[in-house]
Amino acid sequence: MTELQLAYSMAGAAALCWGFVAIIPKLTDVPGHLGIPISMATGAIIMFLLAGDDIQLLARLSYAQLGLFALTGTLQFTVGSALYYECIRRGALSVSVPITRVKVIPILFMSIALGLEQFSWPLLGACSLVVLGAMLLGAPDRKADPTARNEHWASVALAVGCCTCWALGETLIGILPEHIPAIATNFMLLSCGLVTYSIYALATGKWRQVLNMPGRGIWCYMAHGTISFALAYALFVSAVKLAGPPRVVCVTSTYPLIAALVGWLAFKERFAPTLAIGALLLFAGLVTLQYV
User: 218: closest CA among 44, 48, 24, 88?
Assistant: First the structure.
């Protein structure tokens, strides 16, 4: 197995994790901006326990590298994932999750600008197919009532904010120090995100709401942190180190299909012909990616 094939395999495994775990925020009434520290803390603890002696490498980071970790962790987890949680909680899984895949295009061009990827028309075509597929998957239901439509567009706005933060964060993951293994890298990102959130919570008084969170909310966000922030992101960071952000994000962009399936089966969400077309476009993008 080549490094590229290994990266795609890890990205595919991460996509499976993210697809199924998307259901968890819908099982609680706790808003995403309150649940995010639970998920980050859970993921950070698990990564710390698994990192072993690699944690010592973090003590040798320069101030510039620490700043890069802090910025990336804040964009990826503190802000991006909090918006994503709220997006899922308020909207349909089969709509809100696919829209976040629009991040593929800005990730591609930012990666090219940073020297992480070389431009090619087939690669742009693969990314474009993924985005078009995601847009069709996330199209609004024309038969929905006005209230549902308002919730849809609120969810879309949150998804756009989320994918903007993720596009920046996932591109920056590609330029993090290569000598730091993926698990230690993920631990550092989660820890930085948690520190940023703690400062925000102390400044705004949100810490009181976090401490008063009901038990169901705590368990839900702990589960999400274990599967998504620990397992899936460790796989994702490993894949990015091998293949670069654009290619890996194209593969992980298949997880909206899993989330949509969960939405249809568990929450009786809508099904439309555009969803099948969107799925075909996503797979076409993946097939194209194999020849780039």
Answer: 24
Tokens 């120090």 belong to 177
169 close to 72: Cβ distance less than 8 angstroms: yes
User: Around Cβ 91, how many Cβ atoms within 10 Å?
Assistant: 26
- Three-state DSSP state, 122: helix
Closest CA to 106 of 243, 249, 282, 257: 249
pTM: 0.86
The Cα-based distances of 226 to 26, 71, 97, 222 in angstroms read 16, 22, 19, 6
Return the structure tokens found at 214: 């009901």
Cα dist from 113 to 103, 106, 118, 119, 172, whole Å: 16, 11, 9, 10, 12
* Whole-angstrom distance, CA of residue 10 vs CA of residue 238: 8
CB 48 within 8 A of CB 55: yes
Tell me the domain boundaries of the chain.
3-289
Task: Tell me how far apart the alpha carbons of residues 107 and 26 are, in angstroms, rounded to a whole number.
Answer: 28
pLDDT tens, position by position, 187-234 = 999 999 999 999 999 999 988 999 999 999 999 999 999 999 999 999
Q: How far apart are CA 225 and CA 240, in angstroms?
A: 20
* Integer Cα distance of 149 and 218 in angstroms: 30
Predicted confidence (pLDDT) per residue in 227-262, tens digit = 999 999 999 999 999 998 999 988 888 776 776 677
Angstrom CA distances, 23 to 1, 42, 91, 167, 221, stand at: 33, 18, 12, 23, 11
- How many of the other CB atoms lie within 10 Å of CB of 290? 10
* H/E stretch holding 108: helix 104-113
Of 84, 61, 120, nearest to 224 (Cα)? 84
- What is the rounded CA–CA span in Å between residue 206 and residue 74? 17
